[in-house]
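sorry for the late reply, my laptop died twice this morning and i had to redo everyting from scratch. anyway the thing you sent over, i finally got around to it. pasting the sequence first so we're on the same page, its 178 residues, then the predicted structure underneath. double check i copied it right bc i was rushing
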Amino acid sequence: MILTGPGIAAAVQAGEITIDPYDPSRLSPNGYDWRLGDRIRICEGDFDAATPTAFTERPIPATGLILQPRTLYLGVTLERTGSEAYAQILNGDHTTGALGIWVHVSAPLGHQGHAIRWTLEIRAARSVRVYPGMTFGKLVFLTAFGTPASYQQQPAKYAATDGIDISRLYEEMHGGVL
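ok and here's the structure:
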């Protein structure tokens, strides 16, 4: 089941959900409007799952940054979110989609116990200017059924992520072969 906006507010107040910084005006009927952080990684060259991705990291200036088509950007959420009680799903929404921005399409699930600033996968259909702190999508919280297993207690690659992280699939590769 998905939490309502008032349910999210109550869970934040009870300490069951972390949203930092938290602004109650960003609550919607079934989610929270999250924002783009202040830095971005521009991925470079051809990608190879067996090697780390080359990138340039830069701040997003207050005057904005123009995203270009055919480029993969890795951004970060302004908010750090998490919960031991609820799973999270982070998506873009109409505000970004109508600008031709695809954000975080492949990995929307935040496991119970994962308290992070989310790494964002960003692509643009056309050149578009983005700004730090702009609304970039929706975050929803879901009730989990079964015995909880905190993500932070798992031997997971991304458990310690607190910002922008490239694919680390190469850590699973042996000489470039699975």
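Residues 14 and 119 are 26 Å apart (CA to CA).
thats about all i looked at so far, will dig more tmrw
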